[in-house]
Amino acid sequence: MPDACFAHPRLAAVYDPLDPDRSDLDAYVRMAEEFGARTVLDIGCGTGVFALRLAGLGLDVVGVDPARASLDVARGRPGADAVRWLCQDATGLPPLQADLVTMTANVAQAIEAPAMWQATLRAAHGALRPGGRLVFETRVPARRAWLEWTPERSRRVTDVPGVGRIDSWVELTEVDLPLVSFRWTYVFASDAETLTSDSTLRFRELADIEADLAAHGFGVEEVRDAPDRPGKEFVLVARRL
Asked: What are the tens digits of pLDDT across the range 204-238?
């Protein structure tokens, strides 16, 4: 089941205003251009920001996400008709012969159940043409990013047009490596409603990721650094063999 921040209509509607800096997507746009991709599958497309950026460049884009509320936001954006939106997880996709499959931001780590991770890699392989690429990012476990996920560091008040002031913060709920769980809290000033969203991420070691990719028919071409978080994330570029 998708986390509430993606699945709850009220939270999905304010997801982007609460996190407006998506400069992390710039590197993915550059890679799509670098690889000459014409057809892209974006797994975990959420509210569609990245998918629509690619569609705006003339690419054929399929966005897949199991959170209907997030896809409703995506479908309401200008240019949304240029993207094929699928409300489901990545399994059961039709053959797409895609040049590129992406999982941006936390998507790969949010697929924390081993069986679903394996199924997602199989689905990505099946969606790609031979020689196509899978690109995704994952945090470096040794950097222990979760130590910064505290109310003191994360609390902010955001004035969202048409919605009003929202007070939000994150706090850890459990660290049982390789799993890290946390909870976002949102307080809407307009009616004092408080909503929470619980999430769990799996912090995989690089060697384990490379082994998983090899087991599902991928060869790792390169492990890059994330420009927006240098030294803190691996960016995997894997080719379908």
From this structure: 999 999 999 999 999 999 999 998 889 999 999 99
DSSP code per residue over 115-160: HHHHHHHHHHHHHEEEEEEEEEEEE-GGG-GGGG-SHHHH-EEEEE
Residue 95 — pLDDT band, cuts 50, 70, 90? confident
d(CA 190, CA 18) in angstroms, rounded, equals 16
Amino acid found at 31: M
Average pLDDT over residues 44-64: 98
Furthest C-alpha separation in the chain: 54
Q: In the structure, what pLDDT confidence band is assigned to residue 56 with cuts at 50, 70 and 90?
A: very high
Integer Cα distance of 240 and 163 in angstroms: 44
Tokens 């998918």 belong to 51
CA dihedral 7, 198, 42, 103 (to 10 degrees): 180
Distance CA 93, CA 87 (A): 11
Distance CA 107, CA 139 (A): 11
Q: Which of 158, 120, 117, 136 is nearest to 50 (CA)?
A: 136
Contacts of 205 (CB under 8 A, 6+ apart): 141, 178
Q: If DSSP codes are grouped into helix, strand and coil, which group holds residue 71?
A: helix
